[in-house]
Amino acid sequence: MKLIVGLGNPGKEYSGTRHNIGFSFIDFYLSKKNIIPSWKSKFQGLCFETNIHGEKVLFLKPQSYMNLSGIVVSQFVQFFKIDTSDILVISDDLDLNVGNFKLKDKGSCGGHNGLRNIEACIHTQEYKRLKIGISNDKNRETKDYVLGRFSKEENIILNELFSDLVNVIDDYFSMDFLSLMNRYNRKNR
After folding, report:
1. What is the pLDDT of residue 133?
2. Is residue 189 included in any domain, yes or no?
3. Which of 18, 35, 52, 105 is deepest in the core (most CB within 10 A)?
4. How far apart are CA 91 and CA 89, in angstroms?
């Protein structure tokens, strides 16, 4: 079973914010695949199980707030006996411009509190990530910026990117991760 985790914060006030791009992309992906999820509440997370390319896939949106995402992820990992090599976490990234993304198979959290908590709770930095660029505004407090919304122009760019990322996720189910990174990773534009 693969576990795909989209990071974000629960509640309508956070819907559509930069920090919630993981939630947003999971919803977009399922919609594009004509999958109507029946989200269930479990371990402080919203989860939905389906089959993609003959493999069981569990989609998860932690509802514990970003900084405690790891607690939720670790409970799912333990309960479903998911190997850390089968985890893909989708998160925002301040170092990537809007319209860019990066696949990583391991490494540090890069200052992202949700990823930091996941690493602390699953006791490894070796899990897969899809980092989606949200740009950075050095003139604003980081907390205010990540909890802000995208501009109309940025939303147009994101919609195009999300369409491309559907292919990335589809290939994730049929390719080894190194090949996936080699195929899709590119320079930050």
Report:
1. 92
2. no
3. 18
4. 6
